[in-house]
Specification:
The structure holds two protein chains of two kinds. In chain A, about 35% of the residues lie in helices and about 25% in strands. Chain A is built from seven helices and ten strands. By secondary structure, chain B is mostly helical. Chain B is flat, with a radius of gyration of 29 Å. Classes of the chains: A alpha/beta, B mainly alpha. At the A-B interface, strand 6 and helix 2 of A face helix 9 and helix 10 of B.
Chain lengths: ~270, ~300
């Protein structure tokens, strides 16, 4: 596979600089990420990888504008991020992200119209185009509750892509799918990327998925989330599963992620 | 310990069996994949048919018991009631004291619709405020806990003092009857909307009224519909009771007044006919209006089965 292209010269599309994110629970204030920095370039399939509790989902919500950083800054095309907006479309893990009162087509048309980007007729054309891209052209008028999990996720992806956002934010979009459907969706996502060349920020806890889907991987450590490494994975896709090179990288990442745990368990012995 | 368990459960090695590959029978060769339902299954499968049958049983039981009792002043027969109903339906369509039953029903329903509509509007405004602002939330919880347990009819004397002996007083009481149960249901429905859908709405850049109208109301529709039904029943009851006690509104009385007057004159079949009309209107609203709304919304969207 090719090296990532930098569409907009060498200037990053999304700049995240030393961002610390905190959220409140009933009992305490949790620091989810601590001084996390990374740059996403146009056309990147940028993966945030880490175990649960490493703040990768919180990081994504921060970029989405749902959580304001306590320190550091996030800039999209040089503009600071304030609040959620349709230039950063989210694809969630949950199947209930679709509005049950709208059909597949209406679900995709809704943000196009409500953001004032298009009129009804134009939005319908756009919706049908992306319904076709995610291979749902047989079901434009179906209601979400009649679709399978994989089909719902496709609608979620089509809805986000139809908006043609600056960056797609995907929060473990395939985690709730069965293994066979997940694999198929990963392949389709890569095909779509080949076709449209969108920019995506992708959160996952699966090392294999990160290597297959991403071209650049941010490995994060937990409690609080900090950057452990930023690695290249543009060489790998489904055909490289089991290849020595990929296994080597998988092993390297696994060691990075589990090194903490070993240190933690060893601490009492030294103390 | 380990040894004992090894003895009790020796480590078995399953035998290696040959692999099997079989071909799938074509579905066209399978004799009966689908069978049309029989006529009997189809008839009994209709809820309306079953309910009509139950109604018929009740009517027959009523008729039989009334004839056995033979006290028309206490319990008139079904046939007498039906005859009284029919006579009332054939009276002239005017707004006099001896007008058609339909006119009386319309008088009641039109007052009801006014009070109900205003109640729904106020409930929507209050619960929208409650879900978007903290002070609105406090206001709604305080007011509902104060007024929801208070029977609407108890406000009628006060309403008549303030607004006089007319429609306005009735509408005021009806608003009170519909507002609180609906506001309570709407608010809890809004709170139950999944955080994913909320984030989707905000991701689209929706705010304020558009956010409430386009995300919260449809997403909370099952709870809102329940609230609408309860509010409707409360309002209808309150109206009939108010008419029974305080009678006339405007030029002609409604159904409650009709029942009250006929009871005074000991026209007991007419009293039953009036009650029948109240029940009938309730059935029509429940089975046609609300059923239709349900089919066109929550059932179609798969939010309710």
């Amino acid at each position: 596979m090719e090296m990532p292209r930098h569409g907009n010269g060498d200037k990053p599309l999304l700049e995240v600089k030393e961002v610390t994110l905190q959220y409140k629970t009933k009992e305490s204030l949790v620091t989810a990420t601590y001084k996390v920095s990374f740059d996403v370039y146009q056309g990147d399939r940028f993966v945030l990888l880490g175990p649960s509790g490493c703040g990768k989902s919180t990081m994504l919500k921060g970029v989405g504008g749902f959580i304001a950083p306590v320190a550091g800054e996030m800039r999209l095309r040089g503009r600071a991020i304030h609040g959620p907006g349709p230039d950063r479309m989210m694809v969630f893990q949950e199947f209930d992200q679709l509005m049950p009162w709208k059909t597949v087509k209406q679900n995709i048309m809704f943000p196009l119209i409500s953001s004032g980007r298009m009129r009804a007729k134009e939005a319908e054309q756009q919706a049908l185009k992306y319904i076709d891209k995610v291979k749902l052209s047989k079901f434009p008028n179906a209601y979400p509750h009649t679709l399978s999990g994989g089909m719902k996720q496709r609608v979620g992806i089509a809805r986000a892509m139809a908006m043609e956002p600056e960056i797609l934010l995907m929060d473990e979009p395939f985690a709730a799918l069965d293994a066979l459907t997940r694999r198929k969706m990963q392949e389709e996502l890569l095909q779509l990327w080949d076709d449209v060349r969108f920019t995506v920020l992708f959160v996952t806890h699966s090392i294999e998925e990160a290597l297959i889907v991403g071209n650049r991987i941010l490995v994060m450590s937990p409690h609080p989330g900090q950057v452990k490494a930023e690695l290249n994975a543009h060489e790998f896709d489904h055909t490289s599963i089991g290849s020595p090179k990929m296994q080597q990288l998988q092993h390297r990442i696994r060691e990075m992620l589990f090194a903490d745990q070993i240190e933690q368990t060893e601490v009492p012995r030294h103390a | 310990m380990l040894e004992a368990s090894t003895v009790a459960y020796p480590r078995l090695t399953p035998p290696v069996r040959p692999e099997l590959v079989s071909s799938v029978t074509d579905s066209s060769e399978i004799v009966q994949v689908e069978r049309p339902l029989s006529t009997w299954e189809r008839i009994t499968g209709q809820a309306s048919v079953r309910r009509l049958f139950l109604l018929l049983v009740i009517v027959v039981a009523w008729e039989a018991y009334a004839r056995y009792l033979d006290k028309p002043l206490m319990l008139p027969t079904f046939t007498d009631t039906a005859a009284a109903f029919w006579t009332e339906l054939n009276k002239p369509f005017n707004f006099g004291s001896d007008s058609n039953l339909l006119v009386k029903a319309w008088t009641s329903v039109s007052v009801l619709v006014k009070g109900y509509a205003l109640g729904v509007l106020l409930a929507a405004i209050m619960s929208s405020l409650a879900v978007t602002t903290r002070i609105g939330n406090d206001l709604l919880s305080t007011l509902t806990s104060m007024f929801n347990p208070l029977p609407a009819i108890a406000l009628l004397p006060l309403a008549m003092l303030w607004f006089g002996l007319g429609e306005t007083a009735l509408v005021f009481v009806l608003i009170h009857a519909a507002l609180w149960p609906l506001a309570l249901n709407m608010h809890s429905g809004f709170l139950g909307v999944s955080s994913t859908l909320r984030m989707c709405g905000r991701n689209y850049g929706l705010k304020g009224l558009r956010y409430v109208l386009q995300i919260l109301i449809p997403a909370a529709f099952p709870a809102i519909l329940t609230g609408l039904k309860i509010a409707w029943a409360f309002a209808w009851r309150t109206l009939i009771a108010a008419e029974l006690v305080f009678g006339i509104s405007g030029g002609s009385g409604g159904l409650g007044w009709f029942i009250f007057i006929n009871k005074q004159e000991l026209n007991i079949p007419e009293v039953f006919a009036g009650l029948g009309a109240v029940i009938l209107i309730g059935l029509i609203i429940e089975n046609f209006v609300f059923r239709y709304i349900e089919e066109a919304t929550v059932k179609k969207w798969g939010m309710q089965h």
